[in-house]
Amino acid sequence: MAAPVTLSADQARRIALGAQGFADRPPGGSVDRRHGRRVLDRVGLIQIDSVNVVVRSQELPLFARLGPHRRDLIPSMTKAGDLFEYWAHEASHVPVALQPLLRWRMDDAREGRGTWGGVAAIARDHPALVASVLAQVAERGPMTTAMIEGGGERSEGMWGWSPGKLALEYLFWSGQVTARRGANFERWYARPERYLPAWVLDVPTPARPDALKELLVIGARSHGIGTARDLADYFRLNIPESRPLLAELVDEGRLLPAEVKGWKDPAYLHPDARRPNNPKGRALLSPFDSLVWERARTERIWGFRYRIEIYVPKEKRVHGYYVLPFLLDGHLVARVDLKADRQAGVLLVQSAFAEDHVLDTTARTVQVADELTAELSSLAAFLGLDGVEVMPRGDLAPALIAAAAAVSGR
Q1: What's the angle, vertex CA 49, arms to CA 305 and CA 158, rounded to 5?
Q2: Residue 391 class from Cβ within 10 Å (0-12 exposed, 13-18 middle, 19+ buried)?
Q3: Does pLDDT of 387 surpass 70?
Q4: Quick check: 158 pLDDT over 50?
């Protein structure tokens, strides 16, 4: 094995930013599918989430990297055959070229393996229902859950699915149907040949180890550098199964062993990883942005402890309900709890907190507040809102209120 590449923590941070597209300048002029494809080539996938308190999460990674653009960019890319939806890192928009690399997961679903045992049980316990639902999709698709005949009633609770919905989700997980999102975020299910390009479906299915190795390489490319856990997590791969495959990739020269000062675990460096000089620019990050979705990695690289508090009781939340980290010149410097108040026409900042080093000097606090105000204003305009309103909660809130007032002329 080659000697590990030795990197400082700062080098690792800059490599991670470059891999995720944060060392690039946002495009000038009109943003189109070419720009979207370029982002997906870097990040590999975009996680989907249904929470719409600001905007659904899948829109934010593109905004963070491309700036303002047409809100239908992801649907247009999907319709054009650039993207499809599947379980990659949770539910995700994925480049269609990766579909063959995920067929092992579909096979696992058919065999009842994997994490969704309750969904897989529908195929074992009610095969006639599953066959009926599949036939309906083939004959009448695209169709939604509500259009299924003989699907039964939904059970109680937030995730109380009907048997028909369970059958559809099993068929989706096992690759027998695929889906696109409708105007109201609902899934429209169809047979794969209805939505996926023929050239993708014609690609031979790779052997499972080969597919896993390709996914690990994509995870490495999109991270730039990462531990075994980081790289396996990117596509939710089994870590023990991934470790010997990572060793093979090192032997093949497709990954480089690395050591990062301050990191406890060995790392893997993608051979093509960029090492940009101090990246500039600003971005508000979705809680599910691939730059920060692995919380231990985020804390290791940026010293930024980040936990999403959506499911935490209100009285126990530290920073708020839907909190977005703020990236400024390559560092995570603050976080804001946001809500799109569509009735009032404003982007509401319910709290704003700065990292300790930001609060060390007044000048730095003012700079961060000014930059954050500009980014919040840009996001509000992107969402079709009239402006930004800041509530007086959090240690950055006073400076942010002053910055927002200066912009509005109040």
Answers
A1: 105
A2: middle
A3: yes
A4: no
Say what the alpha-carbon torsion angle 379, 72, 320, 43 is, to the nearest 10 degrees. -100
Report in angstroms the alpha-carbon separations of 58 from 68, 227, 340.
14, 25, 16
Of 294, 225, 236, which Cα lies nearest the Cα of 260? 225
Average pLDDT estimate for 88-97? 97
Residue-level pLDDT at 410? 61
Owner of token pair 């007032």: 405
Distance, CA of 28 to CA of 66 (rounded, Å): 9
- The pLDDT mean for the chain works out to 94
Mind spelling out the 3-state secondary structure of 12-68? HHHHHHHHCCCCCCCCCCCCCHHHHHHHHHHHCCEECCCCCCCCCHHHHHHHHHHCC
The residue behind tokens 């500009």 is 374
Question: pLDDT tens, 29-49?
Answer: 889 999 999 999 999 999 999
Of 153-167, 193-207, 291-305, the one with minimum mean pLDDT is 153-167
Instruction: Decide: 17 and 35 in contact? Cβ < 8 Å.
Output: no
Strand extents, DSSP E, 243-293: 256-260, 267-269, 282-284
The closest alpha carbon to 249, from 264, 234, 223, 228, belongs to 228
At 75, give phi and psi (nearest 5°): -60, -40
* Dihedral pair phi/psi, residue 66, rounded to 5°: -115, -15
Distance CA 370, CA 367 (A): 5
| Element spanning 383, H or E | none
Strands 282-284 and 225-227: unpaired
Lowest mean pLDDT among 43-57, 108-122, 375-389: 108-122
In the DSSP assignment, the letter for residue 143 is B
CA 111, 98, 16: angle at the middle one, nearest 5? 115
Give the DSSP letter of residue 145.
G
CB-based contact 230:216 (threshold 8 Å): no
Q: pLDDT band at residue 113, thresholds of 50, 70 and 90?
A: confident
Residue 384, pLDDT score: 96
